[in-house]
Amino acid sequence: MNSNMNNPYNQDLDRKPTNYQPLTPLIFLEKAASVFPEYIAIIHGSIRRSYAEFYRRSKQLASSLTKRGLERGDTVSVMLANTPVRKTS
Question: How far apart are CA 23 and CA 11, in angstroms?
């Protein structure tokens, strides 16, 4: 007999909206920005970005893509170095 079946913590735990919420990277970022807005999310050399700023910048990028006609479900691909983008004047 499977010992998992006898474990009371494994019984009656079917996935339902009340007890299961998938945590995608986007949902994680939104939650982190809400709960820990001032915590540092990105460190790269002297650059420090909080979760709130990272989330704001991500929303800004999404808004820009939407203004260019992209919709939910569209695929966007980019090839970038694994570093934060630096704006130059």
Answer: 23
For residue 17, how many other CB atoms are within 10 A of its CB? 6
Residue closest to 33 by CA, chosen among 48, 54, 49, 47: 54
Over the chain (89 residues), the average pLDDT of each successive run of 10 is 67 76 86 96 91 94 93 88 62
Give how far Cα 19 sits from Cα of 16, 39, 40, Å: 5, 27, 29
What residue ranges in 1-89 does DSSP mark as E strands?
40-44, 47-50
pLDDT of residue 4: 62
- Token digits of residue 76: 């966007």
